[in-house]
Amino acid sequence: MISPTTPKKIPTPSSDLVAQLKQLGLVLTADSLADLVARAATGRGSPRQLLEEIARSETEAAARRSLERRLALAKLDRFKPLAEFEWNWPKKIDRPLIERALTLDFLTRGRNLILCGTAGLGKTMIAKNIAHAALLAGHTALFRTVSDLLADLDRDSPAARRRKFRFYARPTLLVLDEVGYLAYDAHAADLLFEIVNHRYERNSVVLTTNKGFKEWNTVFPNATCIAALLDRLTHHAEVTLIEGDSYRMRESQMEAEAAKKNSKRSSHAPPP
User: Fold this and answer.
1) CATH homologous superfamily, domain 82-249
2) Residue 112's beta-bridge partner residues?
3) What are the φ and ψ backbone dihedral angles of 8, each rounded to 5 degrees?
4) Whole-number Cα distances in Å, 202 to 16, 53, 196
5) What's the pLDDT at 2?
6) What is the pTM of this model?
7) Kindly report the CA angle at 38 between 64 and 42, in degrees rounded to 5?
8) Do 206 and 239 meet the contact criterion of CB atoms below 8 Å apart?
């Protein structure tokens, strides 16, 4: 007579082990530990296969968490993908240079990219797409308007200011947006110079401006560091000019025309 076999008891993971795994940062493994132990106890997969699965899952989870943290720190907010960029709208744009920048080759050499042009031509959109590509490639990147950057640097405590300088010097890419839309004092120019100087020949800057370099004295009147600032900013840089009419103005005109057509159709519609 064949006696029934006693089912093999599957050990239950201790809460201490779960806590230890989470403390080590192995959150995914901790959350699925009961299933992993059950699979090991019932022979579903070799020990090596289970370890390889744990390593792969934790690596992928760590990469996702890292990207989420870096995206939050970058402060890109919402932006249109460059696939929606209308290359034919600007009267002048160096498309090959911008597409080359999206390959991020300039980051490995610590070079800068400066996008010049009037408002509404997509400079910010391009800069955000480059920053996003850098983040997806595993780099660190920050996006700040120059007014936000200068406000953040304007600290009473020298120690706090030094910490901020180090914070903005570290990322692989720093995007400085909207230089030229507001005027600043000489102190602000000195702060911006310090940031550029901290990153000079180390990490890259993408800068957007609506002013030619000869007009920067109107942005930072009475500042004595403008020449030195531009010297460091442009020494290892690609400078490209975008010319044309504002996209936003065009969209406003198209919306007005569409509203006008809808109004005409409504006025000619037969009464119900």
Assistant:
1) P-loop containing nucleotide triphosphate hydrolases (3.40.50.300)
2) 237
3) -70, 130
4) 45, 38, 10
5) 46
6) 0.82
7) 130
8) no
